[in-house]
Design a protein that fits this description.
The complex is a heterotrimer of chains A (about 325), B (about 290) and C (about 260).
Chain A lengths: L1 H17 L3 H23 L7 H19 L3 H23 L4 H21 L1 H4 L5 E2 L14 H24 L1 H17 L5 H27 L1 E2 L6 H14 L6 H19 L3 H15 L3 H10 L20 H4 L2
Antiparallel strand pairs in A: 1-2
Chain B lengths: L1 H32 L6 H17 L4 H24 L7 H23 L15 E4 L2 E4 H23 L1 H11 L1 H6 L4 H27 L5 H16 L4 H21 L7 H12 L13
Antiparallel strand pairs in B: 1-2
Chain C lengths: L4 E12 L2 E12 L3 E5 L6 H9 L6 E6 L2 E2 L5 H7 L1 E4 L11 H12 L11 H17 L15 H14 L4 E5 L7 H16 L4 E5 L3 H7 L2 E6 L2 E6 L1 H6 L1 H6 L3 H5 L2
Parallel strand pairs in C: 3-8, 3-9, 6-7, 7-8
Antiparallel strand pairs in C: 1-2, 1-4, 4-5, 9-10
The chains are: A mainly alpha (about 325), B mainly alpha (about 290), C alpha/beta (about 260).
């Protein structure tokens, strides 16, 4: 772990040699945080999170708007962003929590789309289709705006904190219960635990991570547009998770690095990098459902907590079996 | 305002018919094999582009109208056999992700071949203009769409309920193991079922581009509402898809008239309401996808 | 209060479409007893168990547990109240070790499952001790660190029983505990079930087809037939019951009672 951090910390010095711009790696680190949000729901709880872009976008707009109108310090703005994402999650979670499997996925897409269209239409606030510009954060005690390298280190710090938080959560009793829910939710309930409560909180935590990623990404790019809330963006987060290895702690980072760096490299060769992204997705789903890290771990014998390709599992939450059981 | 309601209601019905036919295609594929086809919109767009190219090369509209969906089905069969078949029996999330990847590839491929701009696709002269029926003028092309789609629904219903093959298909949805034990080639059944779903998508695609324009994402704009239709109508119910489609088609089109800002969102609000009151959809069967 | 009814079902009915899976079933289970439910396949036994344990709610009738009405109580709360259940196919966590399988219930009972903070060293020690205790009771201690997927069917069944004990229940519902077991494994499970009653003083309600097991273990038997109760009584009463004999008990089995 330390090795990885050290490597990442030294990246700005490597950059000219390996032609990977610091900005790209910043983007990858922030993307990884969003991928972690997807990972928590997909890899650990077993729910397909296709609406997380909405939380990402809420984080971004929340941050941007607070910078613009409230003129706060960027850390406060980030917190505003996360708060916005959490509020969004509080609205959406009660609907989502009663569903499992593909219903959860489709419903999350649907809610994500609602936020997307709101961002699109609410032009007076969000700038509509053209998006909204977001000022770069500046250090409190000086008026420097954070340049690329400084922002990179900021992203790195935030990423490391997020990773540690993620690790803490999935290894905690709460996280272990999530893993159990993924494997056999009925049994979790028959051990006296209200699984819906766990799922609810998992959604909130996921939204928090996504919002954090959104807020910082907005500041990195100086910009946020409604398209970032579209479910295709959610799909990209899920892609990164699966590529790297869903159900593992480091998987999202690996997947995000591949995604961002791969995109950067391929787009210098051809503007049609999306074909390769799509092909990668397809190949991954068919050949490496465990993702890169997952496959490696499985070979080595230390199978991660939870990412077997499952048998068809489209049951509704056993919690409300009474409503529909036939 | 109210005199505008008439045409909007008609438009809503046309839109609803589109949603319904796309939803039925999705449903067919989902019900039998549990495959969530996120590339459904891409097949629609493909059919549209194929028709466009054929017409540009000189064939007439009617030939293209028939040929394009068929070619799309051929592509679909290849895709099904190579890429989708390995995922049968796995969690539907995988098919969702795989077809999502396919849709990304497709969108970019369309971009490469035909460019990102919206291509002009005018319906043939015989179908343009309006027709006065009763108290309103109906655009001929939209009437044509309605006629074609209604015929398609009817043909599908006849196929499913009055032919032996249709019977096998319906039986397989109920119990795949039993059908296999009785000697049916289930793999072939899956392929044909997928092809059938794409055929419907292809027809919708060719019709839609005359209405919505032709660009790499035309099909995708119909995809999400189609999923919402499936959810509202109830997974497992083809009849539900029709009712659901018409419902949200009307809702969208009337909303565009009265509260335009909410027109895209109204279908999701409806979906949330339906799911809260009746989780399995208006006509959904219990136990199928929860 | 030994003879008080721990579990009581009054007129419980559950319909699926036109089928009366369970029709007006009333049963009383005395605290501290071992009570068996028998009947042909499709007679409604599992449906009844499902209604009792909150897998779904009955369409009609009421369920009382420890004097409290629980008819529409969510299943997880019934577990908190002291009910516990196993399923026809062992419902366990296939990717976890035996230790982790049992630990979740132990943690749940201790109220430490919904926590971000890991338990303190003392709490952890207490939890581990409890896991060891449970594994010892079902005689699976040697498999503690093994993935349950590697265990035999019988051991998985015992794992499930250990899990159902982890929440410190008063009543244990066992749905066909012998299903799919080899002869040698059956003995182990019988011993454990008897231990639930004799050593732990629990009330046991179990569904079973194996008549030898039922007649040997049960103090009270309820016979189901087509969604209704056909007969109820002690093993000898049931064995002597004409209607039950006619329905499906073979003569040889009864002669061995």
């Amino acid at each position: 772990m330390l090795v990885a951090i050290v490597l990442l910390a030294l990246e700005p010095f490597f950059a000219p040699y390996i032609k990977i711009d610091v900005t790209i790696v910043s983007a990858a680190l922030l993307f990884a945080i969003a991928a972690m949000s997807a990972n928590l729901l997909l890899g650990y709880t077993g729910l397909p999170p296709f609406g997380n872009a909405a939380f990402f976008g809420l984080g971004a707009y929340g941050c941007g708007l607070s910078l613009k109108y409230l003129n706060v310090h960027f850390i406060t703005a980030t917190l505003f962003g996360m708060l916005a994402a959490l509020l969004g999650a509080l609205i959406v979670a009660p609907f989502l929590v009663r569903r499992r499997g593909i219903y959860f996925g489709l419903l999350s897409i649907a809610f994500g789309q609602v936020f997307y269209f709101i961002a699109y239409r609410f032009t007076s606030v969000t700038g509509g289709e053209d998006g909204m510009s977001v000022p770069r954060p500046y250090l409190v005690f000086s008026s420097f705006t954070l340049k690329e390298t400084a922002f990179y280190y900021l992203s790195l710090v935030v990423f490391v904190i997020s990773l540690l938080a993620f690790k803490l959560i999935v290894q905690s009793p709460f996280g272990r219960t999530l893993v159990a829910i993924r494997q056999n939710e009925l049994r979790v309930r028959y051990l006296g635990l209200d699984s819906n409560r766990f799922v609810f909180v998992a959604i909130l935590i996921s939204a928090g991570f996504a919002g954090l990623s959104g807020a910082l990404s907005a500041m990195l790019n100086g910009f946020i547009a409604p398209l970032s809330l579209d479910w295709h963006q959610s799909g990209d987060f899920v892609l990164a998770t699966i590529l790297g290895g869903s159900g593992t702690v480091w998987g999202p980072l690996i997947g995000s690095l591949i995604y961002e760096i791969g995109r950067d490299i391929i787009s210098t060769i051809t503007p049609y990098w999306q074909i390769f992204l799509g092909a990668l997705f397809v190949a991954c789903v068919l050949g490496f459902p465990r993702g890169i890290l997952g496959t490696i771990l499985a070979r080595v014998g230390a199978a991660p907590l939870s990412n077997e390709p499952e048998e068809a599992n489209w049951t509704q939450s056993p919690a409300i079996a009474a409503d529909h059981r036939g | 305002m109210l005199e505008h309601a008439g045409p909007q209601i008609f438009n809503g019905l046309v839109l609803g018919a589109f949603y319904a036919i796309v939803a039925i295609g999705l449903s067919l594929i989902m019900n039998l094999t549990g495959t969530i086809n996120m590339a459904h919109g891409s097949f629609m767009t493909l059919a549209g582009y194929l028709a466009f190219t054929m017409i540009a090369r000189g064939t007439n509209f009617w030939f293209a109208f028939v040929a394009a969906p068929i070619i799309a089905v051929l592509v679909a069969v290849i895709v099904e056999r190579t890429l989708i078949r390995p995922l049968y029996g796995r969690d539907p999330v995988y098919s969702l992700l795989l077809t999502f990847g396919l849709s990304l590839i497709a969108e970019e491929v369309f971009h490469v071949i035909w460019g990102a701009n919206t291509l002009p696709f005018a319906p043939p002269a015989s179908l343009s203009g309006t027709l006065a029926l009763g108290f309103m003028n109906f655009p001929v092309y939209r009437l044509f769409i309605v006629v074609v789609l209604v015929l398609a629904f009817a043909a599908l219903a006849l196929f499913l309920y009055y032919t032996r093959f249709g019977l096998r298909l319906r039986a397989a949805v109920q119990d795949t193991e039993m059908i296999a034990a009785l000697g049916t080639n289930t793999q072939l059944l899956y392929t044909i079922n997928f092809g059938l779903g794409i055929l419907l998508a292809g027809i919708a695609g060719v019709l839609a581009v005359g209405l919505l324009g032709l660009n790499p994402t035309t099909g995708n704009t119909l995809l999400m509402p189609a999923f919402v239709t499936v959810i509202i109508g109830g997974m497992g119910s083809l009849y539900g898809s029709i009712v659901g489609g018409i419902l949200i088609g009307l809702a969208t089109s009337l909303m565009t008239l009265y509260v335009p800002a909410a027109s895209e969102v109204v279908i999701y609000v409806l979906m949330a309401i339906v799911l809260t009151i009746r989780p399995r959809g208006l006509f959904g069967e219990e136990g199928l996808f929860g | 209060m030994d003879n008080a009814l721990l579990l009581e079902a009054r007129d419980v009915s559950k319909y699926f479409g036109g089928v009366h899976a369970c029709d007006g079933v009333s049963i009383g289970v005395r605290a501290g007893s071992i009570h068996a439910v028998i009947g042909p396949n499709g007679a409604g036994k599992t449906t009844f168990f499902n209604a009792l344990s909150g897998f779904y709610y009955p369409d009609r009738g009421q369920v009382f547990f420890g004097g409290e009405e629980i008819t529409r109580m969510p299943n997880w709360r019934r577990i908190e109240r002291g009910m516990s259940r196993t399923f026809q196919t062992p419902s366990i966590f296939p990717e976890l070790t035996l230790h982790d399988n049992v630990m979740l219930g132990v943690r749940s009972k201790a109220g430490l499952a919904f926590r971000a903070r890991p338990p303190s060293r003392e709490q952890e020690a207490a939890l581990e001790a409890r896991v060891d205790e449970l594994l010892g009771f079902v005689n699976l201690t040697r498999f503690k660190e093994r993935p349950v997927a590697e265990l035999s069917h019988g051991s998985q069944r015992l794992c499930e029983i250990a899990m159902s004990l982890s929440t410190e229940p008063r009543l244990v519902l066992l749905d066909e505990p012998m299903a799919g077991l080899a002869e040698s494994e059956t003995e182990r499970v019988i011993t454990v079930i008897r231990g639930l009653h004799d050593r732990l003083g629990l009330t046991v309600l179990f569904v079973e087809h194996n008549m030898r097991v039922v007649l040997g273990l049960a103090e009270q038997i309820t016979v189901f037939d087509r969604g209704r109760i056909l007969a109820e009584g002690t093993p000898s009463e049931i064995a002597a019951n004409e209607a039950v004999r006619d329905a499906y008990l073979g003569k040889e089995v009864l002669d061995h009672v």
